[in-house]
């Protein structure tokens, strides 16, 4: 059956129209897909102002236009010692010491892009202690650092929010985020159920943090203050997180030393937490110049404050290597007699029962790595106790002879470290062998150092607006639309060819 000339003309017009629309659509689709695939990177800098040093880290993530949190990766890092709390009496030097490392950190980024790089500084337990000791001086220090960073050439849009003190619970919370992100349980691609996430145990110099997803809800409004709602990659989590200031490894050791000294004014004082035969010179001023030792804060935490014996200035600690005596001194610093909101860890702090698996890093890891060089998890409590006691019963001469000389400046204190880790984790609620077996010890996870800074940046990335074009075409969508448009173009060409051939044939017959 032949088509009339008018129908052939209509078919040609429709075919040409669909061919043009198909080609235009294909060009637009490819252009949008190219924009969607070739998104730029976003950068940010976090300054982790700890008690002994400031760690500067440059992070990067793909700036997808409709992202929630970014898939944050560490690009570069630097460390500046000592921590900013050491500059409380000379605040201008605090930023001067950070300015050089900060500029070196972003040196590989084009100058034109640096003004868009947000910079964050968060101070942790060392500055929290300084805030107790010298509140006005601490505020001045932060003010000067803010002014310095405002002139750094980086983006500091809200100085009071981006340069501040990090609360202990926040430190624990973001440590939990870091642990789960590195392990792959909370990432852009994967978000496991909250109950299957991994708990975090962090031991710093001035504080310690425990953070995990509890099986139970907070029993009261007061208890809920330590339960934090957190939305990551579109999934909601509620994380219990609590920090104990003064229970960091270094500050707690000062507390132990003060308790051992008591009222002793001798120039030589036996220390059961040090290996037998080890001797170290000590300054009474450095031990007692801490809110964790003397003053009202120490009294509120430990129910008693320690006072420096009159006339005691410089003296020598002589190791006696007695783990039982050391453990008794350590144990007395944990108050477990009262619990207003059941259950509790210690010091009348509500804590739900520990559940699931945990990662113990930072100060938890160093002594454990020495005691168990070929094992990181699956320990029973008695297994660790036996290893710690065996080490504590060695003489310093024995340990020194079998240890790499580079490690001696740390190993001398591993008797105290081991005893403290045993007591701290027990008071955190790890009382059975099964609960201890669920802990994995290590300073790194999958080769990456664990720090709250990664979790903090991952959380903050969700509040930074994307600068990429608001276009997102996924590969499956692109493939489907490409096939549809391609078929439209082919069909249009076939119809057009048919109409033209038919018209030519009709013209030939007519001429004949």
From TrEMBL:
InterPro entries: GDA1_CD39_NTPase (IPR000407)
Keywords: ATP-binding, Hydrolase, Membrane, Nucleotide-binding, Transmembrane, Transmembrane helix
A single GO BP: nucleoside diphosphate catabolic process
GO cellular component: plasma membrane
Domain of life: Eukaryota
Amino-acid positions noted as binding ATP in the UniProt annotation, renumbered to this chain: 205-209
Nucleotide-binding found in the keyword field: yes
Residue stretches spanning the membrane: 12-35, 477-500
Positions of the catalytic residues: 171 (proton acceptor)
Gene Ontology terms for molecular function: ATP binding; GDP phosphatase activity; ribonucleoside triphosphate phosphatase activity; UDP phosphatase activity
Coiled coil start-end: none
Name this polypeptide is given: Apyrase
Species the sequence originates in: Paragonimus skrjabini miyazakii
């Amino acid at each position: 059956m032949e088509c009339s000339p008018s129908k052939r003309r209509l078919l040609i017009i429709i075919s040409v129209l669909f061919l043009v629309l198909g080609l235009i659509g294909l060009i637009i689709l490819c252009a949008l897909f190219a924009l969607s695939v070739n998104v730029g990177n976003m950068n940010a800098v976090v300054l982790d102002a700890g008690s002994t040093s400031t760690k500067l880290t440059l992070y990067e993530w793909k700036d997808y236009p409709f992202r929630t949190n970014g898939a944050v990766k560490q690009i570069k890092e630097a460390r500046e010692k000592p921590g900013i709390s050491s500059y409380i009496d000379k605040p201008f030097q605090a930023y001067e010491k950070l300015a050089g490392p900060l500029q070196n950190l972003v040196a590989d980024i084009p100058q034109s892009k640096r003004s868009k790089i947000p910079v964050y500084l968060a101070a942790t337990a060392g500055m929290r202690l300084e805030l107790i000791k010298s509140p006005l001086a601490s505020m001045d220090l932060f003010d000067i650092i803010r002014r310095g960073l405002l002139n750094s050439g980086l983006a500091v849009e809200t100085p009071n929010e981006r340069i501040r003190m990090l609360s202990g619970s926040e430190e624990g919370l973001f440590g939990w985020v870091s642990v789960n992100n590195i392990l792959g349980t909370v990432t852009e691609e994967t978000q496991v159920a909250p109950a299957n996430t991994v708990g975090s145990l962090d031991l710093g110099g001035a504080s310690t943090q425990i953070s995990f997803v509890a099986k139970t809800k907070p029993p009261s409004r007061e208890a809920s203050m330590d339960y934090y709602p957190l939305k990551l990659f579109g999934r909601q989590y509620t994380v219990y997180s609590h920090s104990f200031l003064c229970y960091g490894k270094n500050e707690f050791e000062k507390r132990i030393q003060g308790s051992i000294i008591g009222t002793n004014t001798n120039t030589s004082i036996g220390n059961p937490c040090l290996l037998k035969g080890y001797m170290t010179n000590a300054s009474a001023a450095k031990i007692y110049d801490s809110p964790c030792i003397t003053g009202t804060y120490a009294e509120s935490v430990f129910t008693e404050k320690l006072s420096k014996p009159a006339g005691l200035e410089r003296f020598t600690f002589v190791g006696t290597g007695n783990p039982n005596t050391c453990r008794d001194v350590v144990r007395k610093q944990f108050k477990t007699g009262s619990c207003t909101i059941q259950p509790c860890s210690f010091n009348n702090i509500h804590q739900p029962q520990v559940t699931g698996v945990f990662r113990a890093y930072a100060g938890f890891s160093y002594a454990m790595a020495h005691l168990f060089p070929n094992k990181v998890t699956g320990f029973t409590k008695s297994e660790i106790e036996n290893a710690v006691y065996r080490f504590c019963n060695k003489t310093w001469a024995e340990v020194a002879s079998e240890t790499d000389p580079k490690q001696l400046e740390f190993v001398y204190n591993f008797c105290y470290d081991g005893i403290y880790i045993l007591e701290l984790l027990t008071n955190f609620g790890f009382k059975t062998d099964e609960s201890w077996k669920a802990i994995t010890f290590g300073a790194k996870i999958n080769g990456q150092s664990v720090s709250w800074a990664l979790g903090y940046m991952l959380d903050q990335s969700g509040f930074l607006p994307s600068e990429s074009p608001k276009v997102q075409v996924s590969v499956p969508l692109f493939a489907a639309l490409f096939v549809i448009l391609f078929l439209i173009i082919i069909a249009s060409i076939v119809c057009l060819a048919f109409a033209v051939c038919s018209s030519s044939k009709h013209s030939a017959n007519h001429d004949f």
